[in-house]
Amino acid sequence: MAAGYAEILRTRYATRLLAGTLVGRLPNATAAIAIVLFIRAEGGSYSLAGGLAAVYGVANAVGQPLLGRLVDLHGQARVQLPAALLSALAMALFAFTGPDRLAAAYVAVAAAGLFTPPLEGGLRALWPSVLGKEEQVHTAYAMDAIAQEVMFTVGPLLVTGCVALWSEGAALLVVNAVGVLGALSVVLSRPSRAWRSAPREAHWLGALRSPGLLALLGAFLFIGMALGSITVAAVSYADEHGGDAVYGWLMAALGLGALVGGSVYGARRWRGLPERRLSVLVALLAVCYVPLTLVPGVPSMTALTALAGVFLAPAIACAFIIVDRHAPRGTVTEAFSWLVTTFTVGASLGTAAAGPVVEWGGTAGGFAVPGLAGGAALLVLLATARVLVKPGETEVVAGSSENDRNGAVEPGFSAGHQA
To answer: Which of 92, 168, 297, 401 is most deeply packed, by most CB within 10 A?
Structure first.
């Protein structure tokens, strides 16, 4: 397992691109907690903090696919770095003005979210040209999914560390400055500068004209809901079993499970259609959510939460392959950005839905939401199975209005997606 990941990291530019992307995504991974801590330090209410964080999230969800389309049209360097600078400047404006000028605060956080560079989609578009071998790209996708778990675990710790050393406002400035450096490292690399998307057919829907991609996004909306609802139910559980420390253990266990599952999944070369494999992974994911409704004692609950995370990273990594298979020619960055947006929106919806459920049905009811959402994701995949599998079974002529595929049994990557 370690040898497979080490081989990728030894490939020229791979470590730089992965590390630069993770660092560049730090502002996005920490925005919610950084905004809340800053507003509270400035004497604002939790309602104001939540409202500003929500505005950032909505703007980010809108901006990712739009910027992803610009990357496909104009290249990474011309879009990613200016976007990173604009986002950081907007967050700096927010840090200096604070909540006293309310309109300015909302405009600033909205701009920061809107201009967050689509580094995730950009990295996934680069992997085929950097690694070359298809099996290595699949492993890199799994490593990418694992890195997401690490970032969303370590990021909040870095923010709280900055707050302890300096202040909440300084944390906003430092995190966003570091994010610009990460984006700069990526866009100045040779693969990023050389990458160009394939010529694309002019269409206002862009990547969304692919039925298979729409089906995948529908499923991942519910997977995002499952993950978002777990965080709310975990807070309720922690309130009943020991407070914030218990919540920290549960979230760490969820991330550890995803880390283990993603590591094992990425170490193996899988055969067969990834669309069918995704259905199995999502089914296992939904099944592993069900035992959470038992709400046992803290040690057992921690173990069940770790189990609930095991199939998350493999499902995400498998989805990356499917996105590449179904993205219309010349829209790969936009397509990956739509997956990020859909997952984020789903998580927000799950958070919103779980609150009333916990109040009505208690903690056990709250933990029922992830299982139901996982089941809904599986139903979407099963209902759209024919649409999802079609590109893998039919070779399509390049240059048509459909996807550009190479017809391999385990689908390869569109030549147009490579530098």
So the answer is: 168
What is the rounded CA–CA span in Å between residue 370 and residue 305?
12
How many angstroms separate the CA atoms of 203 and 37, rounded? 42
Q: Are 404 and 330 in contact (CB under 8 A)?
A: no
Q: Is the confidence at residue 392, as pLDDT, over 50?
A: no
Residues 142-172 have pLDDT tens digits of 888 888 777 877 787 788 888 888 998 999 9
387, with CB counted inside 10 A (0-12, 13-18, 19+), is: middle
pTM to 2 decimal places: 0.79
First to last CA, the chain: 28
Q: Is the dihedral of CA 123, 128, 133, 135 positive or negative?
A: positive
Neighbours of 130 (CB within 10 A): 25
Do residues 254 and 301 lie in contact, with contact meaning Cβ atoms separated by under 8 Å? no
Q: Extract the tokens encoding 6.
A: 């080490």
Q: Phi and psi (nearest 5°) for 414? A: -60, 130
Q: What phi and psi, each to the nearest 5 degrees, are found at residue 199? A: -55, 140
Asked whether the beta carbons of 223 and 285 are under 8 A apart, the reply is yes
